[in-house]
Amino acid sequence: MKKSVKTVLAPVFLAFSILAMAPASVQAVDAVAVTVAPVKYEQRGQPIRNSGRISHKNEMHLSFKTGGLIEQINVEEGDEVKAGRILATLDLEEIQAQQERAASNYEKAAADLERFSKLYDDALVSLQVKQNAQTASDSAAAELQIANFNKKLSVIHAPADGRILKRYAESHELVQPGQAVFLLASSKQGSVVRVGLIDKDIVKVSVGDPASIILDAYPGRDFTGSVSEVALSTDSAAGTFEVEILIDDQGFSFRSGLIARTEITPIATDLQYYIPVESVFKADNGIATVFVLDEEQGTVHEVSVEVVEFLLNEVAVQGSLKASDKVIKLGAPYLNDGAVVSVIDGA
What tens digit of pLDDT does each residue of 119-143 get? Predict the structure, then answer.
């Protein structure tokens, strides 16, 4: 029995109808459910955390200018001293003898100069003789000045009010010129924390930036301070840049060497993009991928960004983003460039 043309073509028309409807169905099935979050374009001062040691702002190594035998030391480690107090003296017997010899040589040279000047005025000696006498007198005067200066610096006075942190020598000990005898901490300028920062952090820090300090020696108490110095060159041994933080000691007398944990908050910061940490995808060597929503098309496009810093729940990035963009927060691992998405509510 023959089938009618209508009967034969009916399944074909049905198949074409199904294929015509397929794109809409596939599109609905392939849409990836995602949540989005707005890009934040803000100027923030991200804290820089590090640790260091307490020391006094102004610590001075005190020594004798000349070498010799120490006659007397008048202070102990930890002593508070006032400016001008005699801390130690050398045995002055040798230094006194050198001063007396210089004074005697000067007296003789001055007398010779006076005598030869009169003889020159009477035309009894040449100008050269007078000039030689003048040179000898000047040289003797300089030697006497040096001897007097050395005698003066054969006594160590406290240059400022402060505390003796270290005593490196004892009475009757022979010391060399310039050998440290005391380490004095001036009480005028207070205490500081010195910390070493790596290159990516040092460029963010400026003098005056506020800081918070925690000392294990004073549990439960927070101290504040500000950056007082920023190194312009690296410490060759550690490879870091030293930053000095002046502390508000709140009346406490800190000991040098205490461990301090610091948090510096830079004031001068650049505008940066901040996105949720979940939005970062395929991070490698500081470069990551994020997906930006195209609300009109219902799709996403892939953008490469440079990761500046990972924060608690966010990432600071730089790249081809706009402050009006929305990035995919949840669902990024299932996307590719141009993927169709369905935005749902969600944190």
Answer: 989 888 899 999 999 999 999 999 9
Q: Is the model's pLDDT at 3 over the cut of 70? A: no
Which of 5-19, 66-80, 144-158, 301-315 has the least mean pLDDT? 5-19
The mean pLDDT of 161-168, rounded to a whole number, is: 89
Q: Does domain 60-90+154-188 have CATH number 2.30.30.240?
A: no
CATH of 32-44+270-343, one of 3.40.50.300, 2.40.420.20, 3.40.50.10140, 1.10.10.10: 2.40.420.20
Record: fold of 49-57+189-264: Elongation Factor Tu (Ef-tu); domain 3 (2.40.30)
What are the tokens at 68?
């010799």
CB 266 within 8 A of CB 206: yes
Following DSSP, what letter does each residue of 277-346 receive, concatenated? GGG-EEEETTEEEEEEEETTTTEEEEEEEEEEEE-SSEEEEEES--TT-EEEEE-GGG--TT-BEEE---
- Answer yes or no: is pLDDT of 16 > 60: no
Residue 341 reports pLDDT greater than 80: yes
pTM: 0.54
What is the domain partition of the chain in residue ranges? 32-44+270-343, 49-57+189-264, 60-90+154-188, 93-153
CA distances from 191 to 164, 195, 209, 262 (A): 15, 13, 17, 14
Rounded Cα distance between 345 and 347, Å, is 7
Contacts 24+ apart (CB under 8 A), 90-96: 90/64, 90/66, 90/154, 90/155, 92/151, 92/154, 94/68, 95/66, 95/68, 95/147, 95/150, 95/151, 95/154, 96/151
Q: Which of left, alpha, beta for 344 (phi over 0: left; psi -120 to 50: alpha)?
A: beta
Percent of the chain with pLDDT over 90: 50
